[in-house]
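Is this the right way to post structure tokens for a design question? Let me know if I should format differently. Anyway, here goes:
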């Protein structure tokens, strides 16, 4: 979360990277990782699979929304609902990847 916040505080955080990688792909990938980490934390706290998956998606999506709001106050940045949707898609992917990987390793 700190890395996302720091990157969002920069006017143009990775110009060389965004020239070769689609911006929305970076959102999906970053927020998938965040959701995976949330899911891991919730699961290790004893949450069931449904709660773990839903909570990871919700918390990650809310952080994505707060990040877009934060960018309203960052020079040369703007807030974009499509970025938040990409964040939320990443959250879904990350939570489900964690659930699938963790459940298959216990089988």
């Amino acid at each position: 979360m700190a890395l996302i916040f720091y990157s969002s505080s920069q006017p143009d955080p990775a110009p060389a990277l965004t020239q070769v990688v689609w911006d929305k792909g970076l959102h999906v990938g970053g927020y998938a990782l965040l959701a995976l980490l949330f899911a891991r934390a919730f699961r290790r706290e004893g949450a069931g699979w449904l709660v773990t998956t839903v909570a990871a998606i919700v918390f990650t999506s809310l952080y994505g929304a707060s990040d877009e709001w934060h960018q309203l106050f960052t020079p040369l940045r703007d807030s974009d609902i499509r970025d938040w949707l990409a964040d939320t898609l990443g959250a879904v992917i990350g939570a489900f990847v964690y659930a699938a990987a963790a459940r298959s390793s216990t089988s």
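Format looks fine. Someone answered above. Worth noting: Residues 28-105 form one domain. The two ends are 32 Å apart (CA to CA).
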